[in-house]
Amino acid sequence: MHAIINDKKSDKECLTHSCNTKPMDIDLVYLWVDGNDPQWITKHNAYINTTGEKSTDCKGRYSDNDELKYSLRSVAKYAPWIHRIFIVTDNQTPAWLDTSNPKVKIIDHKEIMPATCLPCFNSTLIEHFLYKIPDLAEHFLYANDDTFINQPVSPSTFFGKNGYPIIRLNRKPFRRLTIFFREKILRKPLKNYVAIIRNAARLVKREYGIYFNGRTHHNIDAYLKSSYEHTGKIFQKELESTFQNHIRSTDDIHRHIYSYVPICEKKAYPVYVTQRTSLRLRINIGRHYKKFERYNPMLFCMNDSEYATDSDREKATSFLKTKFPEKSVFEK
User: Fold this and answer.
1) CATH number, domain at 158?
2) pTM for this prediction
């Protein structure tokens, strides 16, 4: 069964939709890690060597190329109305960050995650605890450090009528069929990212009778803290079973579940994106830079991966430096 939501709007309609009669605080949450930090590398390698676990991660998941600095520059330029910014880290602080700025705060893993989850090198697991950030606003955005804003946005870009989140999805109408073909016909294992999204979709199907083929757009997502917590309680047993996954695992449950549930409960506005609203630029594919120029998207992601080289990362950093040359209020 496919997800059929009768009140879907186009992305354009939601962007022009009047948001709320009352102003609201909207916070922004990032996960950040400096995988170049010798102390962090020692901790990571010691854990892998001690447990014998095989990491599904790669350099591209941990490498810090100053993406966060440029992402914050994009926020300062195009979303100055953001209330507060929380940066979730593992006992790290960007050297360039002005921590005296009252608008930004570092949150250590220990502040929001139980001891059984630590140390954690699994962003999927960390994401299940975002709602526990102290003083987090009811309305919040979540971003990876490789996501950026490219045009002026407003609160109504992310939250619609009644303050419900606007959830941006990519169309994947044949997703279940594609997965079936890969697993059953080609007999190839699913990539971790595909598998953990399916895990989330299956749980929602079991609880609500709706299977979501579409996945969120790999960019800045909007949530309600109360809805996030509510979803966590519904699937508490299943989520807790992943708390020992210190490294990415195929039985992880992707945060898509926190978007699918409010859609099922009619407490969100699902829309499908185009490349003009949300573009994923893979830094190892040169033609994607031309695609960026052609579509000039509202939001974009500079996606690092196991396929990227250090040369690709240098090119990406150069691109961001040219795109956002002005120092932001978040820097020393």
Assistant:
1) 3.90.550.10
2) 0.88
**Mean pLDDT to the nearest integer, 160-168:** 96
Cα 181 to chain centroid, rounded: 28
* Domain count for the chain: 1
**pLDDT tens-digit profile of 228-243?**
999 999 999 999 999 9
**Ordered alpha helix ranges (H), the chain:** 11-16, 38-51, 59-62, 67-78, 109-112, 123-126, 155-158, 175-180, 192-208, 225-234, 236-240, 257-264, 287-295, 310-323
Whole-angstrom Cα distance, residue 12 to residue 148?
19
Nearest alpha carbon to residue 297 among 127, 84, 148? 148
Q: Which residue has the higher pLDDT, 117 or 35?
A: 117
DSSP 200-239: HHHHHHHHHS-B---EE-SS-EEEEHHHHHHHHHHTHHHH
**Distances in whole angstroms, Cα of residue 184 to Cα of each of 45, 175, 180, 206:** 35, 14, 6, 22
pLDDT at 133 > cutoff 80: yes
Average pLDDT over residues 137-141: 98
* Residue 272 in domain: yes
Determine the Cα–Cα distance for residues 227 and 140; give it in Å rounded to an integer: 11
Domain that holds residue 65: 11-323
Helices (H) and strands (E) in the chain, counts: 14, 11
What is the average pLDDT across 215-234?
96
Question: Domain for residue 255, yes or no?
Answer: yes
- DSSP bridge pairs for 302: 281
- Eight-state DSSP code of residue 134: T
Which tokens belong to 230?
């509510």
Query: Which residue matches tokens 């994947």?
Result: 172
pLDDT band at 186 (very low <50, low <70, confident <90, very high): low
User: What CA–CA distances, in Å, run from 214 to 170, 175, 176, 257?
Assistant: 6, 8, 10, 12
Please state, in angstroms and rounded to a whole number, the distance separating the CA atoms of residues 181 and 328: 48
119 close to 61: Cβ distance less than 8 angstroms? no
- Per-residue pLDDT for 30 more than 70? yes
